[in-house]
Amino acid sequence: MDKIRANPYLNVLVALLAGWVVLLVSKSLANPLAMLIGNFFPLNFYTKNVIFKFFILLISLALILLTGKGNWKNWGFVRPVQFRFLKTTLVTIGIVLAALVAGNVIFTLVLGHLFPTGNNTGFPPHQSMVEMILTVWIWSSICEEVLVRGLVQGFIQDTGRRIFRLSVPVLLSGLFFGSMHLTLFLAGMGLWFVCMIVFFTTTVGILAAYYREKTGSLLPAIWIHFVANVVGSLPLILLTLLHLPIWK
Length: 248
Fold this sequence. Notes:
248 residues, globular, mainly alpha
């Protein structure tokens, strides 16, 4: 393991492969369990994701424990330093709103109209606000950050190189987070909707990764993810309250 981490190229490759292995194994374990539970309780897109994210969290923690040999600090399980809560929250809201506007303009208004695909499916509606808060805002934020900013970003060594003042671990962490959402194609969602979500989550992922690196802790990244999910859900909430189509 030390030899892998000493080689910057092998280090990155193993980190990204580990992240995707966690996703694939988690999905392969979650699907049969969801089918079994579905025989007794009705499940939807979001409640099935709770099971999927549970395995992501469990396997990520197991790999961190094995790889880190019990040293949780290097993986972000510490209190943050130099973390300005209010400033970070306001910056997050601003960047999230900008990403939402830019993503919708580029992929929905422009590319979606220039190259229509016939499939405009987006996220299904939630059963309740409680479901949204528990499954998307809280649970997803925790589980995904432990995987991406904990396991993946924690494994990638900083080479000292900077691109637009961002380190290699920060950029790769953000790109990996965005690429995770390509799996929405498997749920039958439309091309331009998925592209918009990937653009949005990559932006949020880079921001969360930046503060994970800056503070040395997962907590700011989880908070940024939470805020992004809240802000990103507002259009869905508004359209649901107005009984308008969620995606046209």
